[in-house]
Amino acid sequence: MRGLTISTKSKNVAKIIGIIITAIIGALLAIYFFSSTTFNVQGLSINLKATPALTGKTVISLPPVGSLSANTHIAPLEFNASLERIEADTIKEVLADSEGREKLISELTEPKLTFLVPFAWKQLALAAAGAVFLVILIWRTRFWASIVAGVGGAFMIGIFMLIAIYSYNLEAFNEPEYEGVISFAPEMITMGDDFLSQFDEVQTQTELVVENLYNLFGNIDNLPFLGNPGTDEDTVRLLLVSDLHSNPIGVGFINAVVNNFYADAIIDAGDLTDFGSPVEAQLANELKDIEVPYLFAPGNHDTPEIMDLINNMPNGTVLEGQVETIEDINIIGNADPLAYSSEVMNDELIRNRDLRRQIEELRLTAAELEEMVDIIVLHDPKFSTTLEGLANVVVTGHHHRHWIKNGENTVHINPGSTGSSGARGLYSETKVPYSAVLLYYQPGEGPIAADTIAYHPISGRFNVERTLLNR
């Protein structure tokens, strides 16, 4: 009889231990599969997720650039924060004044108040539900036993979350680990710090850019050297741009030139963004308001997502080997080989092979036309001189330096960087100007002239230079 009692007690103890283990597993599984939550912080859409881990780590993902991580707390949980979306209009309003900027920085740098507290409550509920569900499923326990299991699961996760909150150390990100493309450029973090610390200066400079643009265009009629190559009603004005690299001022620059120089179409030689991410693409969202045709030859920094963005614009067209016609001007172009991949190319031999293949594809397309091609567009000019004689004009980008070269049968034009080398051009000390070229083209004859328009952000100086071309 005594042996039977001991056996029964042993079974009960084993069952209790089994229920506890089951409750813990249920709580952890619920957290693992359902903890993902999206927060909106002043125009930034951030997805936060917790997963069981051996070390307390926070991983910040910036798709498709990569991620950075740091050991930020001592609880056995890993927090994953992913930037999913930037609401361009909202973020502009937030950053418009110092109070809004301070609020944004405060919410991003005080996780105890903005993220972890509401996030923790959700995890408690999930842990309780997961523990109850798995205990009932496996052990068929009574109601109160299941409730106790749920409370136990929630209590365990609650302890983990409290430890994480009160041990959280943001300074751990002073020495982060990098993964993905971002690992090639840790200085981007320093660039971000410089941008935030100098935002007032950047904003003042932005206003100065716009003001000077208006002053330039307001007095354009008083510049006699501009002449009037476009007075002939057959002459088409084509705005050539390239290498915006996510600089919002560059988009404003394009709009200003289109509206004030009366461009009939825009030809973009690529690199609209730095990393080709959808988040960056939103910075160029104003392009959708452009009312003239926008032809885009993707660059090595662009991606299929960026191509889709352009193709979805009312007047946007991605050049991928087809022939496009604008005002009786035939235009061909194709994407840089790297635009179809997010991989980083470090092999120069493979890169050169792909660029030569790109040139050959353009040659084949040009050969199919019964007449000479008016304009060929591609991003990297490395082998573009081999297109001499195949088109009246070859437009390239990539080098962030503008030039116009009169060849024997072809004019080679690079508009430089219309985005002043990208978002970093907002505050960098380099002297890369915002630049574009307005090409005057007469169908059936060829290019007549080109105006190189450049704004130097450091000196605040504008240049508008006329170049007469072969007719």
From TrEMBL:
Give residue ranges for domain Calcineurin-like phosphoesterase: 237-421
Listed GO CC annotations: membrane
Where are the membrane-spanning stretches? 12-34, 119-139, 146-168
MF terms per GO, please?
A: metal ion binding; UDP-2,3-diacylglucosamine hydrolase activity
Protein name, per record: Calcineurin-like phosphoesterase domain-containing protein
- A Gene Ontology biological process term: lipid A biosynthetic process
UniProt keyword list? Coiled coil, Hydrolase, Membrane, Metal-binding, Transmembrane, Transmembrane helix
Keyword Transmembrane helix included in the entry's annotation: yes
Q: Does the keyword Transferase apply?
A: no
